[in-house]
Specification:
heterodimer; A: 19 helices; 6 strands; globular; B: mainly beta; 22-stranded antiparallel beta barrel; five-stranded mixed sheet; 14 helices; 49 strands; about 45% strand
């Protein structure tokens, strides 16, 4: 009997314990380990697309989505800029105390860009050692390398312009202990890398017309980045040459004014127009990743009695930024860009709500006098129908409703017209005024729809004005003013919100405190 | 006899409901939802058996002296009585019953009636409290226990009318601190044994990381949610506090353990009991929001504060608010959204059995209508515990539980501004303008309460949304006991649990303006298995006794969740059930998994000599899938000794001290509460529109896997705690007064932290999971029990507890050191060396700068009258970030409770008071006092109101943000709470003799009745803005035993 008991217990114990060996040796069921990524072609491509995704993600973040437009002579605070964190666009536009090393938003930009660079490094490294099976794999891997280099140049250019003193990212062999030091590199080292990356990318990448579209890095992008970098370095010949390469690329054509920023026809329609060199592509198929630039330049028109919130009115408004008064002074009579790229007035569409004592019908303009009367002397409310730029606006093409504070239109990074402006400046500075005027007048001819408004002389000031009219609020102004040493002076003159605060040291952004603490390097002067 | 009438389903929702006399009798209305479980059990009442009863008399004595107030109980029932001044008793009992005689400080005695009518007994003093204590993987006699284990008085627990067992323990156990931050029906609670050891950095939730494990019938419960356990099913609760006791739980024992044993049947007559209660629930404290006048005044004051001397009312509020103000219409959003809630409960249990087969069956319904509209919770649970002695050496049995809860959480549907510090579900209560519009002209709810549509009407949203959460939890816990040899026993304990959670949400097309309808269904499933092989050996060799246990087992957990969200549902009539009708492009789907496994080997050797000296040695070896491949196994030893001094010959038996025991223990424990697969670098899904294929013209949507930002660490392991505990157990006056005092120190090393690393030079990895931090905690727990008065008609018992725990950070990450290698602070995370883990480091505000003090204010910085007076800590004459200082922390200086129980002729009154002192919190109910949102009505500074309470308001004001906004909200959250009162009456047995009822009692109970605190600008001193208000309850109930 006793034996049965022992046998019985032993059998159960053995049967049940047999299952134990697999209990703790497990593989995660729904996540691929990082070590499985870079040894496949799809993995390398994914890491590359992550660069794209991360670089793009600044436009997904409400607090920084239009940071490139901030802090110049072309913008002032919108009425509700105060609603963003002090370290976000508010500080970036006003240069006040929130614009500091402690700003979490600056840190987000820094981290995101450096993460992009790390991924670019991994792709370039993987491409150099990748065991290619056939010619199509070889072609793909070379294109990935070129794209990674072009994107690396893009990100480094943005980093070095904003911060100047930045570390150089180097890949770390897998399995190594974390590295705890990251010295700041000399500015020239960074520019050398940008230029060599651009040059190599030009040789590896297809033209835009042969590429996957506006989202894919192309020869044109690499040339534009090269031109930008040469401009920063004062290499006018190099810059002019790169600009010419874009102009004669064959992929690009100047488009009708109202077509460039349109979304009709979707990603294959206006958003793929041949003026675009690079866009960050957003897609409603990826619902979780919308962009948040569409509402930033919309004033709070819908608060005004008699005007309702509607898609054609700008849908949901956030009013974070507003074109500066100076910007509006730049447009001459007949400049088609004023009408095509801006909303200058709002119409009454809800008669019943109109303020008592005002005889306004649907379709009438909500005049300044009316809005001021409605505001009852409140200065902020009186600004609720101020004119604004519509370059970022989005209609219902991608399912956006009037209640959505986000959208899925692409964010245009570079377009063809910029090559003409850059080229004009490069030629002007290198003494070829004829070619300079030829390039800038191409842009003016389109703007006015005739040849009557051509410039006959060109200087820095004229050029900056044309730059504002053509590329205003597209994110190129800050770097241009900084390059010319005019940032502080011009912001003081035209950006009332920043004028009392901006100091000479603001031409360099403060290095995020978290990086300083970890790397123990010195902060940019003045912070 | 009770009758039950079933009604066939009559409505389209196919719901079964019942009316019955019992519900009517109890004042419960038949609710719409089905309550089959309870009814099924009720049918068992039909099986009532009647045995002949006799009246039994006798005396209870000890050492020849009569015992006054000794308890005499009919076993398996609550029929009983107490002896009178002569030690005499008299009660009715069936002829086949067994009587149980007990008296504090004496061994209890069981006597079968066997038809007798006179039974005299003599109890022998038991200087050792001879209860059996449940320890991990076995039981132990109290006398031989060497660790720090508290046995909870389950009777007192039963008097707390809360559905969660651990909440019932609040204020009753020394060193156990229970707090509740949300009053939401069915929501969980926070509890800790001996405070905080872990920084909680790995799991992201410091409370969760420091929560003890809960073990039910030998099975550690994954997730530890006790909302689904019926407190009535609990036979005993033992709390393992020190390392010696908890080290058998190895890598998950660092926070202590709560061991719960469920009830089982005992041989004897079947006992059937019905318990039912009903009561009202309301909020513990209403918060003082501004009314319309105050709001408009505040708006004007905040404009004046920024220099707008004569603000126009149109610029202060919207036109509709002006109209409401003029018409004198005011909305109190608390009144709009809060209501008096209800708690209903009914339970039926049947237990009993024979020597061979014993059973316990209990069905229970708990229903709570929350104090916020559209927040209801119903829970049904059924438990069956059965034990069968198949042969003289083989016993088998199983514990089975099925519970199902249905929660209507529509009140939580409002989430749109949630996240990012924005609005939480109950935000409307604390921000909606009191001058808003609740109704449209036609009597329907407005969508937005202000013209500018920036504030929503929650009542409209409630009508246009559905949010259901249903949890089904079922488990079987079969076991086999084999007596192999004398004293040697093999136990196989197995467990399989399936817990499913359904979450369904729907926003109608009318929910918001211009946004399409949206439905979401999330279904998750957790499966847990456990197998324990336990070999135990108990043997006495003369004065030597040995108690040895060996365990080999494993536990596995698998979790899966599927989540579907769809927009543009073609109908609003079917709620989320129409989710499948959305077109493909409007549907999103996610799937996620999680799993872990653990294998372990446990050994425990207990030896005691002559009941005087006891030693316990334990060792556990854990293998866990959570640990890095290089540290997959861990070993957790402990050693403890105890000395029963009162058993020594030199100890004078005449002394007032009747019991004296010393305990000493040391052990190592782990904390594995961190996410699975945390040791390795993961990937992210990358989905990008990649343009158009230049060759085919087809659009490309790239979908692949890129890199995540967490670096891998194959050396990752558990957090390790080493704890030393010294305890003393004392008994005085024949153990009428008992005291237990424990002192301990815990050093926790290898704390899990995400070290920030430089992404730039680490391939973009910015977080490195590592075991680097170190903390120390120390404390003292004191428990007291006294039978102050013990008289035949009147008894008074006090049970009190007091505890203090302090913790400090010793070391942080390897980079957080100065040039000499000494650890330095991490202010970004609020961690400071030598300070409490949750220390508040901020400016100290001592008052307000008044008019006339302009110069002094300006000298200190950019201050003007109305600004706070900030202490210049470093004395350099200006306020900089160096003037921040340590303002306190949420760890109490001490906490405890005192419970008084009075018995008088069938009446019983219990009063539990809890005190938590020395708690500092940042009160985030206090808002920014800028802009158009309602605020708490506080005494803020204006030039005309030179208060020192709160500073000036408005944009740019010190409360609105910036450096001092938190400092101004630091408040003392200490409190004393009247936690529970219970008044019960048990009908005398003489009255029940002619009825088939052996026991009938009624009671009224209150929970959370009153807080005495300075932290009044909150729903309770433990709650935070946006969370569900804390409630109090007043419950009436009855219990009938047949």
């Amino acid at each position: 009997m006793k034996n049965y008991k022992v046998l019985f217990s032993t059998i159960i114990m053995l049967v049940l314990s047999a299952a134990c060996s697999k209990v703790i040796d497990r593989e995660e069921l729904d996540v691929i380990p990082a070590s499985q990524v870079l040894n496949t072609l799809g993995g390398v491509e994914a890491v590359l697309f992550q660069v794209y995704e991360t670089a793009r993600s600044v436009h997904e973040n409400n607090n920084i989505s239009v940071y490139k437009q901030c802090g110049t002579d072309l913008v002032v605070n919108g009425t509700h800029m105060v609603d963003v964190p002090a370290g976000g666009m508010l500080g970036m536009n006003q240069y006040d105390a929130g614009f500091s090393a402690a700003s979490g938003e600056l840190n987000t930009i820094w981290d995101g860009y450096y993460r992009s660079i790390s991924n670019c490094n991994l792709v370039v490294q993987a491409a150099e050692n990748f065991p290619m099976k056939d010619a199509s794999e070889a072609a793909a891997i070379l294109r990935f390398k070129g794209e990674a280099q072009a994107l690396r140049a893009y990100v480094y250019l943005e980093l070095v312009r904003r911060w100047e003193n930045i570390p150089l990212a180097v890949p770390l062999p897998e399995g190594s202990e974390p590295v705890r030091e990251a010295p700041l590199a000399d500015k020239s080292t960074i520019y050398d890398l940008i230029i060599s990356d651009c040059q190599e990318a030009i040789s590896l990448l297809p033209k835009r017309s042969e590429s996957a579209g506006v989202g894919a890095p192309s020869q044109g992008l690499a040339n534009l980045l090269l031109a930008e970098a040469y401009m920063d370095l004062g290499n006018w010949e190099g810059a002019a040459q790169a600009a010419e390469a874009i102009i004669s690329d064959g992929s690009y054509e100047l488009q009708a004014l109202d077509y460039i920023f349109g979304v009709e026809g979707g990603k294959e329609g206006e958003e793929s127009n041949n003026e675009i060199i690079l866009s960050w592509v957003f897609d409603p198929a990826i619902q979780a990743r919308p962009q948040r630039t569409v509402q930033m330049f919309v004033p709070l028109y819908d608060r005004v009695a008699g005007i309702s919130r509607a898609l054609e009115n700008g849908a949901r408004p956030w009013s974070r930024l507003s074109p500066s008064p100076y910007y509006w002074t730049l447009f001459e009579e007949g400049d088609g860009r004023l009408e095509a790229w801006h909303k200058l007035e709002w119409l009454i569409d809800d008669e019943e709500s109109v303020l008592d004592g005002w005889d306004l019908k649907a379709g009438d303009v909500a005049t300044k006098e009316y809005v001021e009367a409605w505001a009852g002397g409140a200065a902020r409310e009186a600004r609720y129908t101020e004119p604004t730029t519509t370059k970022n606006w989005e209609d219902g093409t991608y399912g956006r409703t009037a209640a959505d504070a986000e959208g899925f239109r692409n964010v245009i990074v570079y377009r063809y017209a910029q090559a003409f402006i850059l080229g004009a400046e490069a030629y002007m500075r290198s003494g070829n005024m004829t070619r300079a005027l030829e390039l800038i007048n191409t842009i003016r001819d389109r703007a006015f729809g005739d040849t009557e408004h051509r410039l006959t002389t060109l200087d820095e000031n004229i050029l900056l004005e044309e730059h504002a009219r053509e590329l205003g609020h597209e994110g190129h102004r800050w770097a241009t003013l900084k390059r010319l040493g005019l940032l502080v002076e011009r912001v003081r003159m035209h950006n009332a919100d920043a004028a009392p605060n901006i100091q000479d040291h603001h031409v360099r952004w403060p290095i995020p405190q978290t990086f300083l603490d970890l790397a123990r390097v010195s902060q940019n002067p003045g912070y | 006899m009770l009758t039950f009438v079933y009604k066939e389903p009559s409505n389209s929702k196919n719901q079964l409901f019942m009316k019955n006399e019992l519900f009517k009798f109890l004042g419960l209305s038949a609710r719409e939802k089905c309550r089959i479980g309870v009814t099924a059990l009720a049918l068992c009442i039909g099986q009532l058996l009647f045995a002949q009863t006799v009246t039994i008399n006798g005396t209870v004595s000890a050492d020849g002296e009569p015992l006054i107030g000794a308890t005499v109980l009919v076993q398996g029932t609550s029929t009983g009585t107490a002896t009178d001044i002569d030690g005499r008793y008299s009660l009715s009992a069936p002829t086949d019953a067994t009587l149980v005689f007990s008296y504090v400080g004496y061994s209890s005695l069981e006597e079968a009636v066997l038809g007798r009518t006179l039974i005299d007994v003599s109890l022998s003093a038991s200087l050792v409290l001879d209860e059996v204590v449940v320890v991990g993987y076995g039981t132990m006699e109290r006398a031989n226990v060497t660790g720090s284990i508290v046995t909870v008085n389950v009777d007192e627990l039963a008097k707390v009318p809360v559905p969660n067992v651990v909440e019932g323990l609040r204020g009753q156990v020394p060193g156990l601190r229970v707090s509740r931050g949300s009053g939401q029906p069915g929501s969980g609670i926070t509890f800790k044994i001996r405070g905080t050891n872990s920084l909680g950095a790995a799991a992201g939730d410091i409370d969760a990381t420091n929560t003890p494990i809960i073990v039910i019938d030998g099975v550690p419960i994954v997730g530890g949610n006790l909302a689904e356990l019926n407190p009535d099913d609990i036979e005993s609760i033992n709390i393992l506090k020190d390392a010696a006791a908890a080290s058998v739980y190895g890598s998950s024992g660092a926070n202590g353990a709560v061991l719960i044993t469920t009830k089982r049947g005992t041989a004897g007559k079947s006992t059937i009991s019905v318990s039912a209660s009903t009561g009202l629930i309301d909020i513990a404290n209403k918060i003082p929001m501004m009314n319309g006048d105050q709001y408009l005044q505040y708006r004007a004051d905040s404009e004046r504060a920024v220099g707008n001397d004569n603000p126009n009312i149109n610029s202060l509020v919207d036109p509709n608010e002006v109209a409401n103000y003029v018409a004198g219409r005011d909305v109190d959003w608390q009144d709009q959204l809060l209501r008096t809630g209800m708690q209903n409960r009914i339970g039926l249990s049947v237990s009993g059995g024979t020597e061979k087969l014993r059973y316990y069956l209990n069905g229970d319904l708990y229903a709570e209508d929350g104090v916020i509209k559209k927040s209801d919770y119903d829970r049904y649970s059924i438990r069956f515990n059965g034990d069968f002695s198949a042969t003289d050496w083989l016993e088998i049995g199983a514990r089975v539980q099925l519970s199902k809860s249905f929660a209507d959480e529509t009140a939580n549907a409002i989430t749109e501004f949630n996240g990012d510090g924005g609005f939480a579900p109950f935000f409307p209560i604390s921000t909606n303008t009191p001058l808003g519009d609740v109704y449209n002209a036609d009597g329907t709810f407005t969508k937005f309460i202000r013209d500018d549509r920036f504030q929503i009407n929650p009542l409209h949203r409630y009508n246009e949304s559905v949010l259901d959460r249903n949890v089904t939890r079922s488990y079987v816990n079969p076991y086999v006991n084999v007596k192999i040899l004398d004293g040697l026993k093999y136990t196989l304990n197995t467990y399989a649990e399936d817990r499913g959670e359904f979450y369904g949400r729907f926003w109608s097309s009318n929910y918001n303006d211009g946004t399409p309808s949206e439905a979401q269904i999330t279904e998750s499933k957790s499966i847990t298995y456990l197998v324990d092989n336990i070999l135990s050996y108990t043997k006495d060799f003369g004065a030597h006794s040995i108690n040895a246990t060996a365990v080999y087992g494993f536990q596995e957990f698998d979790y899966q969740q599927s989540n579907t969200i769809a927009e543009r549902i073609p109908t609003d009539l079917l709620g989320y059930n129409a989710i499948g009708y959305a077109v493909d492009e409007n549907i999103r789907y996610d799937w996620s998994r999680d799993d872990w496994g653990k294998v372990y080997l446990v050994g425990r050797l207990g030896y005691s000599y002559d009941d005087r000296y006891s030693v316990t040695l334990t060792m556990r070896r854990d293998g866990s899938s959570r640990f890095g491949p290089n540290n997959r196994y861990g070993t957790f030893p402990s050693a403890s000794v105890a000395w029963n001094i009162h058993k020594e010959k030199f100890f004078k038996p005449t002394s007032d001290i009747s019991f004296l025991k010393l305990r000493l223990s040391y052990g190592e424990l782990g904390n594995d509460r961190f996410p699975t697969y945390y040791y390795r670098a993961g990937t992210n899904n990358v989905q990008v529109n990649a343009g158009t294929d230049p060759d085919t013209g087809e659009p490309i949507l790239f979908n692949g896997f890129g890199l995540a930002t967490n670096a891998s660490n194959p050396n990752l392991k558990w957090e390790a705690s080493r704890q030393i505990n010294v305890g003393i157990d004392l008994g005085f006056f024949n153990n009428r007064l008992n005291a237990t005092i424990d002192l301990y120190r815990t050093n926790t090393t290898d704390l899990l932290l995400f070290e920030s690393i430089i992404g730039v030079v680490n391939n973009g990895f910015t977080q490195f999971p590592s075991n680097v931090g170190e903390t120390e905690s120390r404390g003292i727990d004191i428990g007291l029990k006294a039978n102050v008065i013990q008289h035949a008609d009147f008894t008074w018992a006090i049970s009190a507890n007091w505890a203090k725990d302090v913790n400090e950070i010793v070391k942080l990450s390897s980079t957080e050191v100065d040039s000499e290698g000494n650890p330095i602070n991490n202010p970004a995370n609020g961690w400071f060396i030598g300070k409490d883990i949750r220390e508040i480091y901020d400016y100290e505000a001592t008052g307000i700068w008044q008019l006339g003090e302009e110069d002094a204010a300006a000298a200190l910085g950019n201050f003007v009258p109305g600004d706070p007076k900030i202490t210049d800590v470093d004395g350099d004459g200006t306020i900089t970030s160096d003037d921040r200082t340590f303002l306190g922390n949420p760890t109490p200086n001490w906490y405890g409770g005192i419970n008084n129980t009075f018995n008088y002729k069938g009446f019983e009154l219990s009063v539990l008071i809890e005190a938590v002192q020395g708690v500092t919190r940042v009160n985030n109910y206090i808002g920014g006092y800028t802009g158009r949102g309602n605020q708490l009505a506080i005494d803020y500074w204006t030039p005309d109101n030179p208060t020192n309470q709160f500073p000036r308001i408005g944009a740019g004001g010190p409360l609105s943000g910036g450096l001092f906004s938190d400092a101004l909200k630091v408040q003392d959250a200490s409190f004393i709470a009247l936690r529970n009162i219970s008044l019960g009456y048990r009908l005398p047995t003489t009255l029940l003799e002619k009825l088939p009822i052996s026991n009938l009692s009624f009671y009224v109970r209150g929970n959370n009745l009153k807080y005495w605190t300075d932290y009044t600008l909150a729903y309770s001193p433990e709650s935070s803005v946006g969370s569900y208000p804390i409630t109090r309850a007043l419950i009436f109930g009855t219990k009938i035993t047949f």
